[in-house]
Amino acid sequence: MEFNASGELLATAGLDGVVQVWRVTDGKLLSRLEGPSEGIEFIAWHPQGDIILAGSGDCTAWMWNAGAGTNMQVFAGHTAEILCGGFTTDGKRVITASVDGSLRVWDPRSGVTMRIVSGHPFHACAVTFMSLHPNGVVVFTGGDDGSVCVTNLENGRVVTTLVGHGDSIEAIAVHPSLPYVVSASSDGKCFVWDSATFQRRLDFSQEYGITRALWIGQTHLLLTAGLDGTVRIFDVQRGTPILEKACHGDHILDAKISPDGEYIITGSDDKTSRIFKVRE
Length: 280
Known about the structure:
Layout: E1 2-3, E2 9-13, E3 19-23, E4 29-33, E5 40-45, E6 51-56, E7 60-65, E8 70-76, E9 82-87, E10 94-98, E11 103-106, E12 113-117, E13 127-132, E14 138-143, E15 148-152, E16 157-162, E17 169-174, E18 180-185, E19 189-194, E20 200-205, E21 210-215, E22 221-226, E23 230-235, E24 240-246, E25 252-257, E26 263-268, E27 273-277
Antiparallel strand pairs: 1-2, 2-3, 3-4, 5-6, 6-7, 7-8, 9-10, 10-11, 11-12, 13-14, 14-15, 15-16, 17-18, 18-19, 19-20, 21-22, 22-23, 23-24, 25-26, 26-27
């Protein structure tokens, strides 16, 4: 699930290989975007327009005009499922990362690969998640071995590798204004790192794996969602939990916060999606 920049549209995608675009105010289905031959692994909106990028299990990524419902580009080159990706902050490049252990930077107009990052010291395993720094230059990627690589997109060099997790990285969240980046894992641990020095500042842990980690707007509040069907909110400045809400009877597969920071939407293996206020 992903909201567009204005918060007026919500895109959802599933293992049926289809992306659907909904109007938030009344829940009306506006468009149905098809093309990939296998399930959708991620979706992302262009930062300045209603264009959607999606990565698929068929090793391709697709880009559509959400308003017109038309395909704009297909990115082919990865040799395994594309699990994560997005647009650069200026919207001029597309980034994807894959089970094949590589990250690719694409020209969205031509569909040509501009840069490939792979091999040592990059991930020697599947790349499971990525998050771009607001400066548009640095990207954080997580692997299924629990490592997080910090890479400079301009030269393709790995700046450093963050270690400590014992299982697959399921979420990375770079704070939009403060020097924090969070990594969350199937091992049930959530690490808060300094995004400038790359030192670990804080640890949170729980019994079950974490599937999503999100900053609530510009605040110090961090939301996590887990395999136990529970959403938690932590105050990173104080290092304390402030909310624990059991909202599903099965794994939470995805969670998003509305652009105004007021609502949380979750999707679960219990076949329900729930919406509730951040502060109730």
